[in-house]
Amino acid sequence: VSLKMRCFDLTILFLIYNDNFCSSETFRAAVVEHAVLLPQDRNGQVSREEAKKNMLKNLQFYTNYAEKAASQGADIIVFPEDGIYGPGFSWSGLTPYLEYIPDPNTVSWVPCTDPGKYGDSFVQEYLSCLARNNSMYLVANMGDIQPCDKTDGEACPKGHYQYNTDVSFDSSGRLLARYHKQNLFFEFQFTTPKKNHPTVFDTPFGRFGMFTCFDILFENPPIDLVETMKIRNIAFPTAWMDVLPHLAAIEFHSAFAADLKLNFLAANIHWPENRFHGSGIYSPTGPKTFYYNNSIGSDGKLLIKDLDVIDSEERGAPSNRIDFIPYDHVDRTNTLEFTRETREYETFYSHVFHDLFKFQILHEKSGYVELCNNGLCCSLSYEIMKITGDEMYAFGAFRGMHTYQGRYFIEVCLLLKCASKEAGSCGQEVKSAQSTLKSFSIQGNFSSKFVFPEILLSEENEQLSLSMRNWTYDDGKLLVEEGFSNGKPLISSALFGRNYDQDKLHVQAEYKSYFTSNGSHKNVKTTSFIWLFFLVGSLHL
């Protein structure tokens, strides 16, 4: 039963014990992975009426999902980024799909019962009625058009702004919150907001924050929400394209929730032809449920699961956080009985998503590996239960500025299956495995406390999977002691660290270097653009 039903059934207990039971137990969450129906023409400009017809095709699927979720007692539902009209528009092609969204901090509005108050608000009215008719909170992604002053010059080139926007509605259909995506990923149809404050909304089962897709890799808004505002529930619309081995949607989003101790509701679009897939409901203790299907022609899915209400004042698992540890002080205590003495094997370098990792092949069935790369020192204790003749695993480390399709400083200790028995294949995309590991532990001397523990497993037919909780992550150490449920083979496991302070330091260094090498006489427009590119670092996973 849902939170609403539990509260109703326990009314007598409330009267007798005067205990605020409903506000401290569980709630039922729903996320939707939607196979978006794309308009035929996303570059040319269609009429507003044609745009409405195209969006209605997707919104009708939203109705089916919402009604099904409501029938199962869902308290909140989250829909994906770009789910109403799809990605890949030109600026002018997207304009007819946009609506003016008022600021919920300054207005109180139920679009379902007060339509047309702010002009043509077809999508907002539809979503508001979905929330109202199904008596649940709703989060969706849509386009917002805001007027601007042409005297702003280049900041207002076409007379208006276009924002990639998350909206939330309460169970009466009232517009609660509006968030403009801060970190765009090659989304030239949208405007990057000049100022953006972390966005939250309140429910009977906790306060929620919202951010979108590529935002998750940056400090603002995710870390501001979690560290400063103590938010423990996140609604996350996304259009995430998988990048293996360490940035698959289900892999990274579940790791983000595990490290920061969050309830994390991740709703992705379903477009397997272009590697868009992977949604889930994640908790501080591991995945509650997830969906991954990369088969061409497969359908989207509705996920529903109960989550514990988390006190927003609780900090995220301080025992899982470690400050910078000099390599000489890394704890090398053998936590796994089978660990052998370190043997010297040749190391090599290979690229993982355009970052040059230092690797060592796992030659033995069990052992201990240490290696350092640019100041990051990683260690691995492991025991392999079964390895097939044509498979090979390696352990690697990388510390530095990632510069491909965005700029962000990462520190990664990575255990992975190589694509072949050639060393140069380590880091290439792998979708299946047959070898199984009995146990392993990974740790490193990370310079930041933000370290996300990842495990990605193999299913049949090149499908990916997660371990529901056959592992622990404490004091900066990822530990697997008894293999994985159903003996699922391992594709990769990592500690993926982010140092947000280094982002800023590298931006400043690159900016200074640019002016030093080019002089101060350079065209102001050009230097301003380059500075903005470095500063934002956001070029939609």
From TrEMBL:
One protein family per Pfam: Vanin_C
InterPro entries cross-referenced by the UniProt entry: Biotinidase-like_euk (IPR012101), Biotinidase/VNN (IPR040154), C-N_Hydrolase (IPR003010), C-N_Hydrolase_sf (IPR036526), Vanin_C (IPR043957)
Keyword flag Cell inner membrane: no
Keywords, sorted A to Z: Glycoprotein, Hydrolase, Signal
Entries under Gene3D superfamilies matching the protein: Carbon-nitrogen hydrolase
Any one GO MF annotation of this record: hydrolase activity, acting on carbon-nitrogen (but not peptide) bonds, in linear amides
Location of the CN hydrolase domain: 27-324
PANTHER family from the UniProt entry: BIOTINIDASE-RELATED, CN HYDROLASE DOMAIN-CONTAINING PROTEIN-RELATED
Homology family: Belongs to the carbon-nitrogen hydrolase superfamily. BTD/VNN family.
Name of the protein described by the UniProt record: CN hydrolase domain-containing protein
Species this protein is from: Pinctada imbricata
Taxonomic placement: Eukaryota, Metazoa, Spiralia, Lophotrochozoa, Mollusca
